[in-house]
# Entry
Amino acid sequence: MKTFLASGMDFSSVRISTVLLFFIVCCLHARPTTARSDRTDIYTQAWETMLDRIEWTVQHIEPGYFPMLADNATGEWKTHRNPKWTGGFWVGMLWMAYEKTGQEKYLEWARAWNDSILGYEHEGNHDRGFVYFYSSVYAYKLTKNPSYLNSALQAARQLVEMFQSSGGIIPQNLKDKENVIIDTMMNLQLLWWTHFNANENDPLKNSCPEIALLHAQTTLTDFIREDGSTWQSVHYDSSTGKIIKKHTHQGYSDSSCWSRGQSWGFYGFLKAYEATGNDVFLDAAKALGEYIIVHLPDDGVPWYDYDDPGKYKDTSAGAIAASAFLQLSKTVTDPNARIIYYEFGKQMVANLIKGHLTPFIEPESLVGILRNGCYQIYKNADSETIWGDYYLMEALAALIFERE
# Structure
């Protein structure tokens, strides 16, 4: 079993002066102002359009159905009854709307959809973190309803039971125990949270942070390249923990950098630092974030893969990264760095709004559609994604409600 407490990798070469240079370059590449540009605060306007999108969605689907992907033009959602890996993002949007507005209608809708997501906690995949951190954890935070606490703890228990001590990892699912993906860094949030919220006598109190730490350190060692880019997937021998291969599922090639995975890693390592205080995770987050800054195209919105420009955009990768930059700005202590990361995240959000969010790009369109998300290049390569919507809302909330 892996028991190391620190990675041998050195990410301390991240330099604020370099980040500042890249920030200036990015600002020069900012999109020209388009529809609604006369408004003094496009972020507040964008937040309102996202609330409008929630209203429209509630009118067109019922609790028990979860939106995942939508047509760029019509906004019609493809839904599923099983929350799969994305159902929690829709529920999280409802809880966020209630938290920030205080309006009872959002509370009613959030409860209805959260209640319909209960019962899937023990499905055998790492997505229990995605699903229940953004639904039941959020619900318990705002309501203190013990049923939501129980739901979150049950989902965390599922992740603990999936842990493989030989490799120090949580596999993507129990059907393929060799496969581990960068996305799981996000699912560790449920384990960190459980450590702080489980009963003192609950074994999860200690097992959750131990497993989360081991998985984060394994990912740090095995998923990050020297240039700060990441592999999407690493396969481990389930008996010995030795690496079998490194490759991609959704990127351009096994040696390329899939942009959404890069954003997952950036965000996930930042959360690992917040939970542990281990500087190596903060250094890793900075390294992944700086890679994003360097490789963003002129319009400031990622391609689906940084090594396959000109094919498909992925606005969801941009939204995840933007939210992470805004959070990073509150995490670092250097005052100049705080400004730089904040302004960079803010500019990424502006680029998403001006270039991809209706009605800013198409005044007559249904409002609140974040277009051009790339789920998979071979299927649903250009659509609205519910996770892109969630992280855009999260970034907007940080800009509007958490201003210093």
